[in-house]
Design a protein that fits this description.
The complex is a heterodimer.
Chain A: H1 6-45, H2 52-59, H3 61-94, E1 95-96, H4 100-112, H5 115-126, H6 131-140, H7 153-178, H8 181-189, H9 194-222, H10 226-232, H11 239-249, H12 253-280, H13 290-293, E2 295-296, H14 300-327, E3 330-331, E4 344-345, H15 348-353, H16 366-397, H17 402-416, H18 419-429, E5 431-432, E6 435-436, H19 443-465, H20 469-477, H21 482-493, H22 495-511, H23 514-519, H24 527-535, H25 540-567
Helix pairs in contact in A: 1-12, 1-16, 1-18, 2-12, 3-7, 3-9, 4-7, 4-14, 4-25, 5-10, 5-14, 5-25, 7-9, 7-10, 8-9, 9-12, 11-12, 11-18, 12-17, 14-25, 16-19, 16-22, 17-19, 19-22, 20-21, 21-22, 22-25, 24-25
Chain B: E1 3-13, E2 16-27, E3 31-35, H1 42-50, E4 57-62, E5 65-66, E6 77-80, H2 92-102, H3 107-120, H4 136-148, E7 154-158, H5 166-182, E8 187-191, H6 194-200, E9 203-208, E10 211-216, H7 218-223, H8 228-233, E11 239-247, E12 250-255, E13 258-262, E14 268-274, E15 280-281, E16 287-298, E17 302-309, E18 312-319, E19 330-335, H9 337-340, E20 341-345
Parallel strand pairs in B: 3-8, 3-9, 6-7, 7-8
Antiparallel strand pairs in B: 1-2, 1-4, 4-5, 9-10, 11-12, 11-14, 12-13, 14-20, 15-19, 16-17, 16-19, 17-18
The chains are: A mainly alpha, B alpha+beta.
């Protein structure tokens, strides 16, 4: 028998190449080409030679402190998120308790919420027009809000923790829940103490998941835009916000380009580190079905602890959102005969959404923006899955293929590229032949697909990888050709992951703000663009409309996520 | 010939030689057991026959034609995995019907065939069950039904009872034999358990570190093991270093407990096997061994006596009802060398666990 037949041959390199073709073409056209164009434009206009923009960056103390602050707030946010998320992940992974699936579903909601919704939510709670400040002003007869929450580091950190805790709960918790508890039991019977077992057995086994979660959170905080723009104010600019100001307000393109190059280098380094670490730490684990790994709560101490922790978690995650929803239907403005002690229920903010006022900031009724956003989101789901599935398939199954080592971090690049830079790149590159898409409404779903693509691939690869090769072999022996193996085994088994990926793509598109802010056409505004315009305008009606739109956007993304949680296949993570 | 031929299959994983030239045949409608300790290359062999792995050398033939260029899904071979590998996202019906769907059968025909094989494996009416809720024995039967449903020309079973407990195993092994016989199924049964191998298959291949040690019927292998490895693997423990010499009356073999006449055999060092079941207590028989009873281990129906004779330790099973001398007393064993004493190729003797006083 010769060493190969046509079957392994296809496996070796033809298949990965075919699968990579669509995503790589897409990325070349809509990521690398615009990025190249923006840098070209930047350097062309630079007067002091190639190093000019970089000299400007590092010679300005203002810009230097922006860079330092970007790292500082990201590190602090990541640490805080881990501190709150890890105990939660443990409880989710190892204990079975009532209401767990509900809490689990609720913790997913913040992550998919658009940045502007989160910013608006914290604003209604702790901002100058928020519940807390109004209550304090009323009780102590103050003329000015006593708590300076907006434009503070606390606001940024709180929003980031609120945002990313669910990453720890999901990534670490899911992994932990399938980790065979017999491994730590074995360590205990071999004489290791509980602490030693944690240090020498559990933590090393968990490390890939913890590091992956931490790096992902860091990257998100590093490139956070909406939260810092709305809650941080001018005092706390990160690189992302600075790029936005430099391009939009000051039109200093060379400086913006230099900043985005520095940012890109950092995030590229982190993503390479991320993939290297997770590869090196990957051990063949015997993952166990959840029913073997989870215990019920036995002692009253553990019940109290779990209840308290879950209460804290739920409070952190739900109070800002409830505050937003409540504030959108309750008027507290003194001018309208209302106050914190005399709240007036009102639907005026919602009714206003269907009005097209002559002095409106937009050409269309606010309510139309919802339809526009939904259409963009649907297109994004189709595009992101069409490109993400083939990439995830080859990443999961052709692990030996050498080019995959390079392509893996490559497709994560859009994740680490500032959304603002992406938008700017589109304007610069795609407004002239051969790709004149400037006026095309397709530009926004394409931009959203770029942002969603890494999420889609990242959520698909682990579940594709975790399918036991045995199942594929069994299918092959039963007469399934390779295409049928993918259709009958891989696709149904990753069904839930595909649903989750689709939900991510949908939510990301609904809430995307950075790139949209630059690319969107005034006649097709999306919901986040409208929220930003309304919330940055004075007047209680504008504020109220921003809150009403934010609430609707929050409900849309939350309902989508809950439906996914319900729709998922019978727990297929059990191998 | 019609059926499966394995010709000189070789396979290495890096430095490790998994298969070092394995050849055998499985004629149509017969069953063959591959018996060997874990790590001897049994599972690799099945993967190669199924086409899931390519061998480094050798060939797999069906009806005399090479399968080298046929991918696994076109071989029409069934493989039942040790851990069953049931598809977790399909119910019992979905698992069993999978192979039939791949053949493009109509729904009605599939329904009939699924109930037929479920009947055959003793699980009628299980179609709608979730495979994640099946017990070990049920999972094994569903996996078997799934492999049988498309009527593969060859069915391979990889330690199919390995993960089950002893009682269940004994019952299922008989069911397996009945099912294989009833369906006239050509089959290869891989196991490390001699009882399973003997009761399921008409022919047995004993493997050791990538090589075949012996091929034959269960009776052949048990009564005439070809090597010390096979003997030890079958639980035959009375192995001794010996020396064949030509004497006046013919050939004889010198052992720690005396010299005994044997049939023609080239002179030189050998390993001698005393089969325990043909030894008897007391005088009678052509040859005798006089030893000292050192220990008696009670094992239920039988008890095992440890007897020291000239610094050699014999282990002999007696019915528990036998009245043996007291520990430390002399004991006389008699036997008939021609059917009790086997001369095997020389092999290394493991160090002894018990020393004689």
């Amino acid at each position: 028998m010769t060493k190969t037949d046509d079957y392994p041959l296809l496996r070796s390199w033809v298949r990965p190449l075919l699968l990579w073709l669509p995503p790589v073409l897409f990325l070349s056209l809509f990521y690398f080409y615009p990025l190249g164009s923006i840098l070209q434009v930047a350097f062309e206009r630079s007067q002091s030679g190639l190093a000019g923009p970089f000299y400007e960056v590092f010679s300005s103390p203002g810009i230097r402190s922006v860079i330092a602050f970007t790292f500082w707030q990201a590190a602090l946010s990541t640490l805080l998120t881990l501190l709150i998320g890890l105990p939660g992940a443990y409880l989710f992974a190892r204990y079975e308790f009532r209401g767990k699936s509900l809490v689990r579903a609720l913790t997913a909601v913040p992550f998919v919420l658009p940045t502007l919704v989160v910013a608006a939510a914290f604003n209604t709670l702790l901002g100058s027009r928020g519940w807390v400040n109004l209550a304090l002003m009323d009780s102590f007869n103050l003329l000015l809000p006593p708590i300076q929450f907006t434009n503070s580091l606390t606001a940024i950190l709180l929003a980031h923790v609120f945002y990313n805790t669910t990453i720890v709960l999901r990534m670490v918790g899911d992994y932990w829940s399938h980790l065979d508890p017999r491994m730590s039991q074995a360590a205990l019977t071999l004489g290791a103490s509980t602490l030693k077992t944690l240090r020498h057995v559990t933590l090393p086994l968990l490390m890939p998941a913890v590091l992956a979660a931490a790096l992902l959170i860091f990257i998100f905080d590093f490139t956070s835009f909406g939260v810092i723009l709305v809650l941080g104010g001018p005092r706390f600019a990160t690189m992302e916000v600075e790029i936005y100001y430099q391009t939009i307000s000051l039109f200093n393109l060379p400086l913006a380009a230099a900043l985005s190059m520095i940012q890109l280098t950092c995030t590229l380094g982190m993503t390479i580190l991320y993939t290297q670490l997770s590869r090196r730490m990957q051990r063949p684990l015997s993952l166990r079905p959840v029913q073997y790994t989870q215990r019920r709560l036995r002692t009253w101490q553990s019940r109290v602890f779990v209840s308290l922790f879950m209460g804290l978690l739920l409070g952190l995650l739900t109070i800002p959102l409830l505050s937003l929803a409540a504030r959108s239907v309750i008027s507290l403005e003194r001018g309208q005969n209302a106050s914190i002690t005399n709240p007036q229920f009102t639907l005026a903010y919602y009714q206003e959404l269907s009005q097209n006022r002559r002095d409106s900031l937009f050409f269309v009724k606010p309510i139309n923006a919802i339809g526009i956003s939904l259409a963009y989101a649907s297109m994004t789901v189709v595009l992101a899955l069409a490109l993400g599935l083939p990439a995830a398939l080859t990443l999961a199954r052709d692990q030996d293929w050498r080019l995959n080592r390079w392509l893996d971090p490559l497709i994560m690049l859009p994740l680490g590229t500032s959304a603002v830079t992406l938008g700017l790149g589109f304007i610069v590159a795609l407004d002239q032949p051969p790709f004149d898409l400037r006026a095309s409404p397709l530009l926004i779903p394409i931009a959203h697909t770029l942002v969603a693509f890494p999420f889609v691939v990242r959520s698909l690869v682990p579940s594709l990888r975790s399918i036991r090769p045995r199942l594929r072999q069994a299918a092959a022996v039963l007469g399934a050709p390779p295409s049928q193996v993918v259709r009958q085994i891989d696709l149904p088994l990753v069904g839930r992951a595909v649903l989750v990926a689709a939900a991510f793509a949908f939510s990301i598109s609904l809430g995307e703000f950075g790139a949209t802010a630059l690319v969107s056409r005034p006649e097709y505004p999306t919901v986040p663009v409208m929220i930003y315009r309304y919330i940055s305008q004075p007047g209680s009606l504008n504020y109220g409309q921003a809150l009403a739109l934010s609430t609707l956007l929050m409900i849309a993304t939350a309902v989508g996520m809950l439906v996914i949680e319900r729709l998922r296949l019978a727990d297929i993570g059990e191998f | 010939m019609s059926g499966l031929s394995i010709i000189d299959i070789r396979k290495a994983f890096g430095e490790k030689q998994a298969l070092r030239g394995v050849s055998f045949e499985v004629p149509q409608s017969s069953s063959l057991a591959v018996l060997g300790p874990s790590g001897c290359g049994k599972s690799t062999l099945l993967s190669i026959i199924a086409g899931l792995e390519a061998p480094d050398g050798g060939d797999v033939l069906w009806d005399g034609e090479s399968l080298a260029r046929i991918p696994p899904h076109r071989r029409n071979f069934g493989l039942m995995f040790q851990d069953f590998a049931l598809f977790p996202h399909r119910n019992v019906f979905g698992n069993i019907s999978f192979g039939l769907q791949m053949l493009g059968w109509e729904a009605l025909r599939i329904n009939n065939r699924v109930s037929e094989v479920l009947e055959l494996v003793g699980l009628p009416g299980y179609e709608k069950r979730d495979v994640n809720t099946l017990s070990g024995g049920e999972g094994q039967r569903v996996a078997l039904a799934r492999s049988l449903a498309p009527q593969p020309r060859l069915l391979m079973l990889d330690e199919p009872l390995g993960s089950l407990d002893r009682n269940l195993r004994e019952r299922l092994v008989l069911d397996l034999r009945r099912i294989l016989l009833a369906s006239q199924q050509t089959a290869i049964y891989v196991t490390h358990d001699q009882e399973e191998a003997f009761s399921v298959a008409g022919q047995v291949v004993v493997m050791n570190s990538g090589r075949i040690e012996q091929t034959g019927s269960p009776q052949d292998i048990y009564t005439r093991p070809a090597s010390a490895f096979v003997a030890r693997f079958l639980g035959l423990v009375n192995l001794f270093a010996g020396q064949v010499r030509q004497a006046q009356s013919g050939f004889e073999v010198e052992t720690p407990f005396g010299s005994f006449p044997i049939a023609n055999h080239p002179a030189g060092p050998v390993t001698v096997l005393l089969r325990p079941d043909a030894l008897s207590l007391g005088p009678g028989g052509k040859s005798q061994i006089l030893g000292e009873l050192v220990r008696v281990d009670f094992r239920g129906q039988i008890c095992q006596a440890l007897i020291c004779a000239n610094d050699a330790v014999l282990r002999i099973d007696f019915p528990s009802s036998t009245s043996l001398p007291a520990i430390g007393e002399p004991i006389l064993i008699s036997f008939n060398p021609s059917d009790t004493l086997l001369v095997l190729p020389e092999s290394e003797m493991p160090s002894r666990a018990i020393n004689c006083p």
